[in-house]
């Protein structure tokens, strides 16, 4: 019989990541132009924000707009927590997967009107397992548990549903949901590597998936690119109110993010150094550089192939409003994104 999960400290297995839990507070009062509160999660998919932070790019572009901008950074785990923080007024910019974006876009349409600001890039996400009997998603049983950042909401959870629908049909899209658990990526990686717990699967992201695969007992069950094609799984989003009431701060943020994407895509070595410096991650630089030098990874603010997931979620009733295109759930700014 498998053991219940008792997560080992990450440092004990050499991953060296720390969970900075952000506490949700009561709705904050509206603040004046010149302040922005950003919530990110874990992994290389948030590298553009690491660059923005390291080079103080928001502050730089704020000065060009004639304002001093105070930037507050928070780290959360899971799209549900991020969405709660955004809607409570605790943060202004939410970093999460396309799944949480579509959920909150659907629920706030005609009210807070939450939409995406930009993509954080194109990244393949791997569904991993340390169970040698699990070769495909059809092999998971009641004895298995799959870690995702947020059950039924995170982009990993939605990708698993998308894969299930392709395997068994739309009516069984949530067939694997009962096997999923909400576990932060660092902890899930530690549990998968250590073994001996009920957690035998993890729908991960880089660099955690790459670190887990260094263990010969861990293998890839599913690559998100095989299910959906190359896509932008993680995005940044905000309320219409923040965008409208803080045009200079918002513009500075968009400009900062655009510069960060150009920097990271052009110089992967400098991007790797930035990630290590900002996150303090205990990962070998050569290993990290090999991960982000993967030709399947692209740092860009333009979203790619997000609409098929939106269509799917509407088709199975996970969202009530059907977007006409990706432009319905992305803000279209002065320099409109070229996406899909």
From TrEMBL:
- Gene3D superfamilies from the xrefs? Periplasmic binding protein-like II
Q: Which residues form the signal peptide?
A: 1-32
Instruction: Give UniProt keywords alphabetically.
Output: Signal
**Family annotation (SUPFAM superfamilies):** Periplasmic binding protein-like II
Checking PANTHER family in the record gives: ABC TRANSPORTER SUBSTRATE-BINDING PROTEIN, ALIPHATIC SULFONATES-BINDING PROTEIN-RELATED
This protein is called Putative ABC transporter, periplasmic component
